Amino acid sequence: MNHNKPTTTHPQPSSGRDTLRLWKAYVTAFLVLWFAVMSRFGYWAEVSRHWPMSVVMTLGSPVAGSTPLAGGTVAFPILVLAFNEPASNARNFGLMIQALGMTAAMLFIIGRKVPLPVRVLTGSTAGAAIGFSIGTFLIAPHVQTSLVKLLFSCLWMSFALLTFSKNTEICGLKGQGPGDTPGAGSTGLAAGLIGGTLASMIGVGVEMAVYSVMVLVFRTDLKIAIPTAISAGALASIEGTTLHLYLGDIDSKALFDWLAAGPIVIFGAPTGAYLGSIVPRMKVLYFVSLLCVLQFIWTLQTAHSSTEWWFVSVAMIVAVVVLSTLYRTGKRAVQPVLR
């Protein structure tokens, strides 16, 4: 497998054409629609009472645009642990706000002509759709709320372990990613399936799965790997939001939180995407990983039963095994290239 093959060809610039026109049109359309809804239904007073989520997403949206961690990574623990919201509400809000903000970041990334692996994204989007269906209808109804909280915490603790153990190597990668290799689509499908199943319960997961595959298996430069993860998370969040709109289980609290935070994330996530292209990735990833460790410690304080502690132990062992396997797979694949 040739990991050094370019992922895509850069679009030829068109004379006088604004490459960010899609992003600008998206932002303008949202703001016009948001203002119309707020005015037509008189939501100003109600939405103003949900200002705490605007504050939360002021931090969360740049994280979503500059790292492989979605905005729900910040919102979920705040809503569940600090605001005592049900995990299902935190999941729905996370999916909704990511569908808005990460899509804005994705359009901004496309406008800046960052090369994205189309086959990986196509595969991850298809896999996420399957994962959401499996998780929503077959798994989530049988998982205790306390275990959902711990699942979220363990997932992002695994990201911290990956960063602290391999960050120097990962930040030094120069590979262009999978390109149009035959295995790119199937690998993206597997990542989307696993991530979508996790996201069906906690609202995040696809971006982490795609990021892990990009840097561990395909040995991809972070300038491509992180935008790919952001784009995969955006597309998956649209799928998840659509599913829950169809199911009709998005309550008014999540909706008003979304209306309060929407104008923040529509600019915050693209700002994060821009900052991510100029700020040293290593420092950013270390900082975010530290936040993951802190939320892991915070969440463990809610674990009391032996079942919950066994769940954490098994989840972390599985995470270490999976990440180690992906790492060894990527290292073996590049050996012929290095010789």
Question: How would you explain this protein's 3D organization?
Answer:
The protein is mostly helical and 339 residues long. It has one domain. 78% of the residues lie in helices and 0% in strands. The protein contains 13 helices and no strands. The longest helix is centred in the last third of the chain and has 33 residues. The radius of gyration is 19 Å and the shape is globular. The relative contact order is 0.18.
Instruction: Give me the number of helical elements.
Output: 13
**Uncertain residue ranges:** 1-15
- Which radius of gyration do the C-alpha atoms yield? 19 Å
Strand percent estimate? under 5%
- Shape by Cα distribution: globular
Which sequence of SSEs, written as H and E, runs from N to C? HHHHHHHHHHHHH
Helicity level, as a percent range?
over 70%
Distance between the termini: 14 Å
Query: What class do helices, strands and sheet pairing give?
Result: mainly alpha
What count of domains describes the coordinates? 1
Taking all residues together, what is the mean pLDDT?
Answer: 89
Largest sheet data: none
Count the E strands. 0
Helix and strand topology:
Elements: H1 21-41, H2 44-48, H3 51-66, H4 72-82, H5 87-111, H6 118-139, H7 145-171, H8 182-202, H9 206-217, H10 222-247, H11 252-278, H12 281-300, H13 306-338
Helix pairs in contact: 1-5, 1-11, 3-4, 3-11, 4-5, 4-7, 5-8, 5-10, 5-11, 6-8, 6-10, 7-12, 7-13, 8-9, 9-10, 9-13
